[in-house]
Design goal:
By secondary structure, the chain is an alpha/beta fold. Helix content is 39%, strand content 19%. The protein has two domains: 18-154 and 206-274, Rossmann fold (3-Layer(aba) Sandwich), CATH 3.40.50; 295-447 and 512-591, Alpha/Beta hydrolase fold, catalytic domain (Rossmann fold, 3-Layer(aba) Sandwich). It has 19 helices and 19 strands. The longest helix has 26 residues, at 482-507.
Length: 592
């Protein structure tokens, strides 16, 4: 066994038996998921949870975890699955045969649930996941029921909705030099190839010729018309259909930091699954599930390893590393409340690239975010958590003990904030790569509506619109928020007055609160490389320059601080043409 494997194995902490991650599928095509075992007398039911596609899956991740936990608390064995090419599974959206790969992922999860002791299965899916669950059931004879949440029965309608949603984002089109592939359609940071779109367009659940299960629970959205036609068609095929309109779907797929857990949907799903009658037919004897916690895979002609690790009782991460000893460690932090796969799944892509080049990469969920538990007494889904800096410290200690001599911490938005705060706390970090930080001095309970970055953003917008006739017409018609304009004016006035005073105090070495310039100077003085990456229109760069004052250009001139700017990107680099540019910028920031 190589040195890196020994070190990582030594660092492993066994996850609680009630909840364990796993890899399944063919050796070259690892598929990731979570098994939630019940600690109660088992009902014998296995619940397979099929997520929606792309950004909806990112937003719904927390709700899917709550559903699995609720099922386990009701005596049900639950399995969450990252569909082939998504999440922590191997591959990506551009691979061929996506629908077949997704259905194979569901089959893997079914077999795992049976191996874990289930004797009958219920499939639950959201949106595209509901469609896939229905198709997967048609390929099996052991499905006792299906829960279909917010289903769109027609693949063509699903694709049409996706096109409309993408158009509403107003993303900057790709420059000619980096134009996207012609056959790829984007959907909020994710991709649908021509082959995938063709396969989806052939799906029409209203044309099924047999019932996918004897019992089905249709949980329709409460803000749209019910799926009455599909319900009627299923009944005509002999299925027993319970159809309801429940609240919760819309709030479940809001941006991750705003998403709400749909308790009514969860309760209905668990109740349906728990009451499925026991099977009267003979079931094939399945092997007891043995969970694989690590997989070797090929990436860019190199062999790398992906392994799930529990850093302590709360913290979960995916470690990706080369077969040999690593040259350094890179810790990737959550962007807002997005899970460890990162915005647009970029952390997974970056981790595999860096591991193939020789790095140990830790994709971390800080406590209370993603698949990490909240600390005692702390809330869940808290983006600027008071525990985050200590969480980073646990991760830094882990990679140091795993053999890394150099440690870089990379984060976007709140992740950038936590990376800088961890370095300022004295943690043994050698390099910080901060991407689009929005604040440098967050106070618990602070409203972000009038935070410095919001005011800087408004100031940038007002400056651009001051020469616009349309803007003046809005003002004259009373359609401008004058109170907000006044706040921005006061912010700009205060900044103009205090900036020179701060510079004088710095030169006199007089300490004052929340002095970003002195903080950056101190970090650089300790030999910590500071690298910032900004989308050109993101307000964070303006905040950095204003609050950092003369220290920023001074550090830039010595190379201890570098700033890269990416034109045309939004805050989370949603447009796919920006992805390789961002990944290249991060790689450069890690090297220079």
């Amino acid at each position: 066994m190589n040195t890196m494997s020994i070190n990582v194995a030594d660092q492993r902490t066994v996850a609680p038996p009630a909840e364990a991650g796993f890899f399944s599928g063919p050796g070259s095509r690892a598929r990731f998921g979570w098994l939630h075992r019940t600690s109660l007398p088992s009902t014998g039911v296995g619940l397979i949870i099929v997520p929606p596609f792309g950004y909806e899956a990112v937003c719904a991740q927390r709700s899917m975890r709550h559903l699995a936990e609720a099922a386990a608390h009701a005596g049900i064995t639950a399995v969450r699955v990252d569909l082939d090419g998504s999440g922590n599974s191997a591959g990506d959206d551009l691979d061929p045969d996506r629908v077949d790969g997704w259905l194979a992922s569901i089959d893997d999860a079914c077999e795992l649930a049976l191996g874990a002791g289930a004797n009958r299965l219920v499939l639950v899916g959201v949106r595209l996941g509901a469609t896939l669950a229905t198709l997967a059931a048609l390929r099996r004879n052991d499905i006792a029921g299906i829960v279909a949440i917010a289903t769109v029965p027609s693949g063509k309608a699903l694709l049409r909705e996706g096109r409309i949603l993408q158009m509403t984002l107003g993303l900057t089109p790709a420059p000619a030099a980096s134009a996207a592939l012609d056959d790829v359609h984007e959907l909020v940071g994710f991709a649908l190839t021509a082959q995938t779109r063709e396969a989806l367009s052939q799906i029409d659940l209203l044309k099924l010729t047999q019932a996918p299960a004897t019992a089905m629970l249709l949980l329709d959205r409460d803000d749209l018309a019910a799926n009455d036609a599909w319900a009627a068609h299923l009944r005509s095929l002999g299925a027993k259909v319970d159809q309801r309109r429940l609240p919760g779907y819309v709030d479940m797929v809001l941006d991750p930091h705003r998403a709400q857990v749909p308790q009514a949907i969860i309760d209905a799903t668990v109740r349906f699954a728990a009451t499925r009658p026991a099977s009267t037919r003979h079931l094939f004897q399945h092997d007891v599930a043995v969970l694989e916690r690590r997989r070797e895979l090929r990436h860019a002609e190199a062999s790398i390893v992906e392994e799930m690790v529990a850093l302590d009782d709360c913290l979960f991460a995916i470690a990706t590393y080369p077969l040999g000893a690593p040259r350094r460690a890179v810790i990737l932090l959550n962007a807002g409340a997005v899970g460890h796969i990162g915005p647009n799944r970029l952390h997974v892509i970056l981790a595999r690239q860096l591991a193939a080049a020789g790095d140990l990469v830790l994709c971390l969920d800080v406590s209370g975010i993603g698949d990490s538990r909240q600390r005692a007494g702390a809330g869940e889904n808290v983006v600027y958590s008071e525990h985050a800096v200590a969480d980073v410290g646990v991760a830094v200690d882990w990679v140091r003990r795993a053999g890394a001599a150099q440690v870089a911490v990379v984060g976007l938005c709140s992740g950038a904030y936590h990376a800088l705060r961890a370095a300022l706390a004295g943690q043994p970090i050698d390099r910080v790569v901060a991407i689009n930080p929005l604040t440098f001095h967050y106070k618990p309970g602070m409203s972000l509506d009038f935070a410095d970055f919001r005011l800087a953003e408004d100031a940038m917008r007002y400056q651009k619109s001051i020469t616009s006739g349309a803007s003046w017409q809005k003002l004259l018609r009373g359609k401008v928020d004058l109170a907000r304009v006044a706040r921005v004016f006061l912010y700009r006035t205060r900044a103009a007055i205090t900036r020179p005073l701060r510079e004088v105090l710095r030169r006199l070495h007089v300490p004052f609160g929340d002095d970003l310039g002195s903080e950056l100077d101190a970090l650089a003085g300790h030999g910590i490389a500071l690298r910032f990456i900004f989308a050109a229109d993101d307000p964070g760069q303006k905040v950095l320059m204003e609050q950092g004052g003369s220290v920023v250009p001074k550090l830039v001139s010595t190379g201890r601080l570098r700033i890269q700017t990416i034109s045309g990107a939004d805050h989370t680099f949603t447009a796919r043409w920006t992805h390789p540019i961002l990944l290249d910028a991060i790689s450069e920031a890690l090297e220079r």
